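Researcher: Let's run the pair from yesterday's discussion. Sequence first, then tokens, for each.
Model: Starting with the first of the pair.
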Amino acid sequence: MDFGLLGAVEAHEGGRPVDVGHTRQRAVLAALLLEDGRPVPVDRLVDRVWGDLPPLRARDTLYGYVSRLRAKIGISRHPAGYVLETTSTDLHEFRDLVKQARNAPPAEAAPLYDRALGLWRGEALAGLESPWFAATREALHAERNAVRLDRNDVVLDLGRHTALLPEIQAQAQDDPLDERLASQLIKALHRAGRTSEALQHYEHLRRLLAEELGTDPGPALRDLHLELLGPKPAVPRQLPAPQRWFTGRTEEVRALTEPSSTVAITAIGGAGGVGKSALVLHWAHLHAKDFPDGQLYVNLRGFDPAGEPVTPAAALRGFLEALGVPDPPQDVDAQAALYRSLVADKKILVVLDDARDTAQVTPLLPGGPGCTALITSRRQLLGLISAHGAKSISLNVLDEADARAFLTARLGRERVAAEPAVVDALLDLCGGLPLALGIIAARAVTQPDLPLAALAEELAEHRLDALDDLSSSLRTVFASSLRVLAPAAAELFGLLGLPTAADLSLRSIAALADLPPARARVVLRDLETAHLVQQHVLGRYRMHDLVRLYAAEVAPADDGPLRRFVGYFAATAHAGDMLIEPHRPPVDAPAGEVVPLADASAAMSWFDGEYEALLAAQRQAVGRGCHDLVWVMAWTLTNYHLRRGHAAEDLAVWRAALAAAEALGDRSKQVAAHRYVGMALTEFGVHEEGRHHLGRALELVEDDYGKAGAHRAMAWALERQGDLAGALAHADAQLVLFRGLGIPVRVAEALNDVGYRAAKLGDYARAEACCAEALALNKELGHREGEAATSDSLGFIAHHHGRDTDAVRHYHHTLDLYRELDNSYEEASVLRHLGDVHAALGDGEQARTCWRQALTLFEAQGRVEDIEAATALLRST
């Protein structure tokens, strides 16, 4: 009996087919035949036939299959399992013929190979599906492919290339990356007089290997290529393989592609690890066909931590040798002249990677109009731009979408989708820096069983340590950039690692470094040129998070720079607060550099610009135990917070100030801190804790001025809690104390507080009398903030007293004043009330306009309850 495995599994007896049953039964037969007479245990047969999905009674089912086969085929049972002893299979015959062919001379081997390959009737073990059969089938096909390649070599040796060509071309389409098959096709094409097609196929394979595997053709194929080229002038193809996982950079690729009427020189600048080389090589491989005369490449190692930069002479010698000059001249100028002459009329791409400076690359620039030069550097090569008209492209980190695409390309969609929150964290921690993303991806790929969450946790806790591996290190990259800086720039780089703010103004950096602003700007320009800092808006500078972490590692241990830095914020904030609210009782000015501020508007602009850095400075003052600065910074921020509606931030800075006041043992500072913490907590509806702090302020206060201030805070808190009678009582107590002290501005504020609470209780006569007296006092004193607050109260009184036309007048005057004072918080509240008055007057359109304007401001200020109220009003009209 004869058996077939090289196609559908079948059996023949005396030339007649034998029915060997359905697919599973044929699978049992095939599993026994492939063991070459060795016994196969029942469990192994079950596994081979069904894999991971056996039926419930698999052994019984298998016994049935074997029983039916034994009725027709000689299967025997041994203690170790079932056995089918036969060598009458087409697989045995195939292997016997191949063995004979390999030991025969070419003329006899060719027909033997043909007979062997002719035994194949299609896909081996056709129709049998299980993991074991899939693996066995793949191994058999690999064996057949190897025989095909052996047979192709024999046929080529016999000179039958013309007849073989169609077959090899079809095979190459099915297996385009097989270098041995490609070599056979190139030989056949060349011998058939189609050398240009042979060279084209080599180039196609070279690019395919670079794109798919990131590698170049092997030595045998390269030697064959050179043999085909013969004695023609050398065409250099020096580009390294492109990055397989290159993603994004659409705008930069487009910018590199823009045509130029002159010699095209483009300088690509960016920080170390940002992906400059990857971008250039990606573009270069995409456009290699545009440079038929070759591509020259040199790594100039301008920032290589392991050695010195490549000299122009060494780079030129390499270029000249690649262009077919066996013995270049020794003089650099002569080398450069010869190089330019050789490429003058050619279309050649020149890639100068990792340049130190303009002087290093100038001799390497081609002069012909058909040439293109791409230069990468961590520094801005201003000399190239000014002297050679180079285009400049500055490379930044990847945006979130491109960074995610990069990780997905490296790790696969399934792994990224399995841990979406962890991937988000990794992207955030890497900050879009391609080198950081590449290191994390490499670690994940080489440790497939390690959860991404473990990598994210390590990266969060040990940022730079987690980004070191045997081949790449962010510390090394940053250190090599730092090594080439001027001493002043290197020193400033370390100082910039001290603050924790996301970005810094020129003035704050000047204070940190103890430099005049003009000098600080010059030194910062050196860091900008090295792509270690970025001036993202005029006068403000920032670092990538990972660069800042390295700067912190090399920062000086001296406490002086950071204290100067915090002192700048505290002193300027103090001066700005006095401009915003000149009637506020002063506190001692802290030591520090003060930025000149012309007026209250300039002060508000300074607070707006420096706000996040100012908060960060207070947090650092807390960490350094600078209690005096912590308290005064909270004090100076209070009015700004009121005008901008930063309630949560106000609570945070005053909690820190309370701890500082207690550490200082300063009773008056504790009173103020308790008062402001209590008011902030009440603003958030945390009434019990708020009352505790306001009560502590009243307990601790010793002077009448402080008692009046504590009563005012308590009145405000009780009003917020709905206790209007209690609020009025504290407001009256405040008024009595301030009248006794004879302080007009405080008396005016107290009169307004009493009048407003009286109005809320329905005593409009007293309310109007108090507010009218307060308004006159505020106007006499020039207290615009007090005038605005009192005019607001008069608007409220008029509206609730049935005089809506007067209310509109008062509210419009209030709006003018708050806008003049840049108090957007109160502006929003007044707009809401003005809308209510217009609604009462029947002017629905004007009411909706006011409510919409108020809602926009409420949303910007995060005032949840006010947002809900304004939204409800708009929906109801």
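Model: Moving on to the second of the pair.
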Amino acid sequence: MTSQSGERSPLPRRAVIGTALGGAAAAALPGRAHAEESLPAVESAAGPVPAARARPWRLRSAMDTDRAWAGFLREQDLRWTRLPTRWYEGPFLGDGLLGSMVYQEPGANRIRFTVQHGRVQDHRPEFGSGWGTCRLPVGHLTLDPVGAITAVDWRLSLWNAELTGTVTTTAGTLTLSALIHEEVLAARVTATGGEQVTWTFHPEEALSPRRVQEAPPAGYTANPPWTTRTTADGTEQVLQPLTGGQTATSYRRTGNDLLLSVGHSSPSTTAAETASLRNLRRAASYRTLRRRHTDWWHAFYPKSFVSFPDQRLLSFHWIQLYKVASASRAGGPVMATSGPWLEPTPWPAVWWNLNVQLEYWLIHGFNHPELDSLATTLRQNQEQLAANVPAAYRVDSSGVGRSSDMFADRAVGRPGSGAETGDLTWALHNVWLSYRHSMDESLLRDTVFPVLRRAINYYLHFLTPGSDGKLHLPSTLSPEYPVVPPQDTNYDLALIRWGCRTLLDSAELLGIDDESAPRWREVLARLTPYPVDANGFMIGADTPYAQSHRHYSHLLMVYPLCLVNWDQPESRELIAKSLVHWHALTGAHRGYSYTGAASMYATTGDGDTAITYLRKFFDPTTRYPCQANTHYTEAGPVIETPLSASQSLHDLFCQSWGGVIRVFPAVPSAWADVTLHDFRTQGAFLVSAVREAGTTRFIRIKSLAGEPLKLRHGLGGALTVLLDDGTRARTHDLGDGVLSIDLPRGREVLVHSGSRPDLVIAPVAVSEPGAAWGLP
């Protein structure tokens, strides 16, 4: 069975068991594991270590208490001693649905708390995703002080996911705290001196944020105006009717507490007001809601741990985990390009030709599959994905256009017309990554296989043989490249190859004898090679990469698909010159151009070049750098780029493409110490590893699914490879520093060289200090 990189998949465990090396031979070979033939074989179906048997080794963690986590994350908090004046400078709160940015009300002596919601959208597809099914603004709160604001002292606590601090004015002081949980924005503010607490809610017109760029399309009419009412218990409501839906904002103040909730319903035009009131009743008070809120976040963070010695980047990394958990939860709407924090923007929808894909990569290594709203979106909207293709192909095909609403409602064009057609297939690669990191067969069976089958079928309708005997694709758009769409774009050829290989693998795993399998094999055998020239990968046939290109659509086979990779010696020169040429043509590069290059160089093992490119994203002299609160803007909020920067960091520390786990594959030479704990990889393994003084001290791997384990460990000398019951693990040296280890489901293995090191998980010392994010 083939893997995503085109290599054969790992051997079944029963085949590995019989290939363990004898103890003497293993001890004599550098980098190989000790194994003793006299030891009893470990059965592949072995369960957890019996409780009665003393465990010979165990990891100890300095991060095993709430106090330790609170102290560590406090060092990563965002701080403000100056009042932020723009959304990309201020604190941000969210729960995967409701979101708020905090900054000065433009041109006024007030503090704005934006009120936006990931489900609030228009429902008029006839006007397209930019206007007819776009995200819609809700409104904003303002905290209106008596005196002129002279200073602020704020902290956004990651551990508590809570904003706290003070606002000093010429009249006195306001002390505030705020959080969002269960679709309720809760704030508690007290006043001293001559200050008073005054809140005002400002509804915003339900009109597309795209109006900052263009006028509405012909025939477009505004949504009806909002109305207000007060309920019997004193709750204020703003009701926004929509064609085919309703948005309702409910808020009330009790003592020092303000609670606000947003509801959205469709097609019902009344259900939202009931939902928002129900949310307020459930919240009860700031104190009650905060207790549930902090319980959730305190259980959330300890699922994984990473520490490295660059303070500024370390803080950034943990802030991105907070950010993605604030923006996405499984079962909720797929993240729009702005996340749940809507501002005036040309992109008030979901973008499928890069943005969605980059948004979700970091959740895997961080061990948080519960944040994957992309996978659930594609599972829940399969009928819409079929409706998106032209009518003649709906019986067996699916797709999605470049941008859509949260239900993936956007038609896709035909190959041959220059249309962008591969975006659904690329999004499915993300869902396949979710499967590979969880090994949840239901995800493969119910989402990846059926939807990918239809996405590839759409391509197959248009592949035609050429005079060379190869299969060719008519003109399609390579996303973002500004020339006439060529034939045989590398973007689509890479996705077709990955899709056909994945379908064959999936059918075998699921025991499906699919009638299309011969066609998938034929495509793999006959599909035209990737177009290349003297500078590397081209955009497509007869279309060289000749203009600066912010996207890496022509390089997907290198990253993230890894079909053409550094483990293939014959591919190295092509990869290297393609990367150099991509970045040699400057002018159009943006933030994700740098994060993409960083990840690609990480897959080559070149951590120093990778970190050089990654730092360009943080360089304030670049045209579009990372902003003060770690968000990113071009013509509006663009959430994917900072999140992809976290994935670039993950690629430095641990990679698992091609069926091999690579521990510390591309750590920059300046980072002598790195700690990973419960880093999740493909195959559903949890990796813990410590690097000290530039040397890997130990690796511990836990198997959650019993998949075959191949490890590129980076250790020298004779290895010790112990299971959690003290027996030697069955191993096989695969060469090139890769060790196959028999590790049953639920079991752990420890790998080290020399004498046993201290098996301690702890933060590493900071060698590169840096200021806090925010406006400290």
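Researcher: Give me one sentence on the second I can quote.
Model: The longest strand covers residues 172-181.
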